[in-house]
Amino acid sequence: MIDFLKNRKVQIAAQAVVITGLVGGTGAVVTMNKPVTLEVNGQAEEIRTFGGTVGDILDSHEIDVDKRDQVKPGVGTKVDRDMTITVNTAKKVALSVDGKETNEWTNANTVGQALADLGVDAKGADLNAKASQRLKDKGNDIEVTTSKDLTVVADGKDHKVSAAVGTAKEALKDTGVKLDKDDFLSVPMSAEVSDGQVLTVNRVKNDTVKDKQAIKAKVETKKSGSLYEGETKVETEGKDGEKQVTYKVKTINGEEVKKEKKDEKVVSEPKAKVVIQGTKKKEAPADTGGSDSGASGDSGSGDSGSGDSGDSGSGDSGSGDSGSGDSGSGDSGDSSTGGGSGSGGGDMSTAEIKAMLGGPGSKWYQVAKCESEFNPRAVNKSNNAHFGLFQFKLQTWQSMGGSGNPVDASPREQFERAKKLQAAAGWGQWACA
């Protein structure tokens, strides 16, 4: 029997006395006593009443109706036999759906009915109470975690989640994906998730990387009076050193985000390069008529310098200093031409010059062949600035102790000056070397 009907017999007895006095007969009482089903918040009981309206019956059973309560049929409806009167009182509910909290009112009688009444889809959801649990007038707390479809991306793969999960941690747990010590999700583990959300697992690695790097060699400069100003010579070839640098490198999903230097160790020391710079002042070349006339004669002999001694004599006569040279052999013709001193370049035959240079296996032989074709009076016709067997510049020739023009000197003198230049500055003075 429902609570509000506990004193039903007493109430009916009192009503019967009043009605009997008014009507005055047993037959009239039976006629006005109607059977009615009264259902309050889902609890029903058969009663007999003399009330005329639904409101009369509610009043007689001390049921106070609030404006939020639901009464069917309405309180002004006349009572008929076998009528069912339904009363669902208003209940206050503290509702939490996926962490969002609200206060609601409902006329439902169970948790499941309340969720349906409040428009909450509880299919597949997790509830803090059974759906059949009855509601009280007050103090109803309902927590709902709805079912969601999410995606967890980890290690290049998509892991689908279709479950009632409320937080990112719960979603990750559903996939079975594990996080290592430094790994993290794209949202906090405690963050609430929503339907359709994508969560990303970020894999973090902290590695120690060793890198070998070059240590650049320094260049040291020395001054020397053995070389002229503007001339340089490498005394010691330098060599780069090597060091090993240790870094701590942090990557997220394979991408480097931080690189921190932790240690540096020298594997091999660099060796400095030493360069000698000349400081010797250069002297202006002497301007003599003999060298001029010799240069003039050279221009005519340049074409025949590669021939034998006979050719050389022919070439010398072409330079036409005196004509007396024609009467001698090729060698004597060379020595008498050029308009210079008796040490002019024609005191040796081509064969003798080749022998002097050491023959075909000698580097000097190769240089003279390439530079002048063994012609001690050769002149570079492209620039008129290089002379003799070894194509000296006048300035270089004079810096080696020569005077005038190389073509006016004997092949032996030219060879001696060339060897002196090679000793001071190396074979790099000749491209042919």
UniProtKB/TrEMBL annotation:
Alphabetized GO MF terms = hydrolase activity
What PROSITE patterns does its record include?
A: G5 (PS51109)
UniProt KW DNA repair keyword: no
- Which SUPFAM superfamilies did the record assign? Lysozyme-like
Q: What CDD domains does UniProt report for this protein, alphabetically?
A: RPF
Gly residues: compositionally biased ranges: 297-347
Coiled coil region boundaries? none
Q: Does the keyword DNA repair apply?
A: no
| Residue span, G5 domain | 201-281
Q: Where is this region: Disordered?
A: 256-355
- Source domain of life: Bacteria
Q: Where is the composition biased (Low complexity)?
A: 286-296
Which keywords does the record carry?
Answer: Hydrolase, Signal
> Which residues lie in Basic and acidic residues bias regions?
256-272
Family, according to the entry, reads as follows:
Belongs to the transglycosylase family. Rpf subfamily.
What's the name of the protein?
Uncharacterized conserved protein YabE, contains G5 and tandem DUF348 domains
Q: Which organism is it from?
A: Brevibacterium iodinum ATCC 49514
